[in-house]
Specification:
122 residues; seven-stranded mixed sheet; four-stranded antiparallel sheet; mainly beta; 50% strand
Length: 122
């Protein structure tokens, strides 16, 4: 069982930056691939980025490539999402997820956090 708790969301102006954190419980964090998803009001949950258990394989959606950076610290049991050049269309609830395999398919992730709100003002 893995419990995930996101933090770091908030209100930021367009062009600004935020760093999200996702702290995981349990001793098996290092064996899980991790991902960030987001869901805007009235829209489906959208894949943002994933990182494999070792941090060697990273995937980004086209919408965030070059602006967002995922990283993980297997000692601190935490995955991060550094977001730069934020735009109003990045406004959403951001969720972290853990699963046996990484990638963009939602069904590969077993555990989900409760989400953290990111709002980008124009």
């Amino acid at each position: 069982q893995v419990q995930l708790v996101e933090s770091g969301g908030g209100l930021v102006q367009a062009g600004g930056s935020l760093r999200l954190s996702c702290a995981a419980s349990g001793r098996t964090f290092s064996s899980y691939a991790m991902a960030w998803y987001r869901q805007a009001p009235g829209k489906e949950r959208e894949f943002v980025t994933s990182i494999d258990s070792s941090g060697g394989v990273i995937v980004y959606s086209d919408s965030v490539k070059g602006r967002f950076t995922i990283s993980r610290d297997n000692v601190k049991n935490t995955v991060y999402l550094q977001m730069s050049s934020l735009q109003p269309e990045d406004t959403a609830v951001y969720y972290c997820a853990a699963g046996a395999r990484g990638g963009s398919r939602t069904y590969t992730y077993t555990y989900w956090g409760q989400g953290t709100q990111v709002t980008v003002s124009s």
